[in-house]
Design brief:
Shape: globular
Radius of gyration: 17 Å
Protein name: PhzF family phenazine biosynthesis protein
Number of domains: 2
Number of helices: 4
CATH topology of the largest domain: Diaminopimelate Epimerase, Chain A, domain 1
Largest sheet: 14 strands, mixed
Organism: Streptomyces citrinus
Number of strands: 14
C-alpha cells in the first residue's frame, strides 16, 4: 500500500473548490515510470505528483495517461506542501514562495503544454458552454476543430481590473472532462495578454498571475490539505 496526500489547489476566497492533486511524498515507493503512470491512472486526479527529493524540491508529474515536464497546479500545490524555494521538474527549475495565504511559483510560458485559448464575449457565455465532445476524426457529431484539443475558454469579467472568467476542457478520454483550475493555461493566457490576471475558473476556484522580468510569469493561489489516503500501487 502507498500513502498519498490529497490537496486542493487554487481554492476560492471562501476556502472551497480548488483542483484536487494527489501527492506521493515518498516517490521511492514507486520508482518505475510505468508504475507511476498506472498509479496516477488509478487515482484519477487531473494530476498526481511523486516527490523524489523533498529537500531539493524534485518532483515528477503525471496525468492519468501522460507524464508532464511541467504543470501549474501540481507545482503550486507541491510548493505549498514542501515549503522549498524552488522545485525541479523536467522542464527546468521553478521558483517557489509562500506569501500569506497564497502559494506562488515562477515559470516560463514555453514550459506549459499547448492549450487552445478561446475568448468569448461575456462570462455568461463561458458559463453556458457545454463540455466539447471527445472523439477521433470522422466520428459523428465531432467537429474537426474540437477533436482532442485542450481548450481554455475565457472572457473578461472586468477588463480594467484584469478579472477573467475561465473554464478548462482537456479534450482527453481519461475521465477528466473539465479541469477545475489550470495553472499552465492561466500562465499561457497571462503571456498572451501580457498583464496580471485574477482568474475565476470552474465552480469557484481562483488563480492569480503576474508577468515578471525576462520572460518569467508568476502563478499563485490558495492550497488546502484535503486528506491522507492509502492505495495499492
Amino acid at each position: 500500500m502507498t500513502d498519498y496526500d490529497v490537496l486542493r489547489v487554487f481554492c476560492g476566497a471562501d476556502g472551497r473548490h480548488g483542483n484536487e492533486l494527489g501527492v506521493v511524498r515518498d516517490g521511492s515507493r514507486i520508482p518505475d515510470r510505468d508504475a507511476r503512470q498506472a498509479f496516477a491512472g488509478k487515482l484519477g486526479f487531473s494530476e498526481t505528483v511523486f516527490v523524489d527529493d523533498p529537500e531539493r524540491g524534485v518532483i515528477d508529474i503525471y496525468t492519468p495517461t501522460l507524464r508532464l515536464p511541467f504543470a501549474g497546479h501540481p507545482c503550486v500545490g507541491s510548493a505549498w506542501l514542501l515549503d522549498v524555494p524552488e522545485l525541479v521538474v523536467p522542464a527546468g527549475v521553478v521558483g517557489a514562495r509562500l506569501d500569506g495565504e497564497f502559494s506562488w511559483i515562477e515559470a516560463r510560458a514555453e514550459w506549459a503544454p499547448p492549450r487552445t485559448l478561446r475568448q468569448y464575449g461575456s462570462a455568461a457565455e463561458v458559463d453556458a458552454l457545454p463540455v466539447p465532445p471527445v472523439g477521433g476524426p470522422g466520428e459523428e457529431g465531432v467537429p474537426p476543430d474540437e477533436v482532442r484539443r485542450w481548450i481554455y475558454a475565457w472572457a473578461w469579467e472586468d477588463e480594467a481590473a484584469g478579472r477573467v472568467r475561465a473554464r478548462g476542457f482537456p479534450g482527453r478520454d481519461d475521465g477528466i472532462t473539465e479541469d477545475e483550475a489550470t495553472g499552465a493555461a492561466a500562465l499561457l493566457l497571462t503571456a498572451h495578454l501580457d498583464r496580471a490576471l485574477n482568474i475565476r475558473q470552474g465552480k469557484g476556484s481562483q488563480i492569480l498571475t503576474a508577468p515578471q522580468p525576462d520572460g518569467w510569469y508568476e502563478v499563485g493561489g490558495r492550497v488546502a490539505l484535503g486528506s491522507s489516503r492509502l492505495a495499492a500501487a
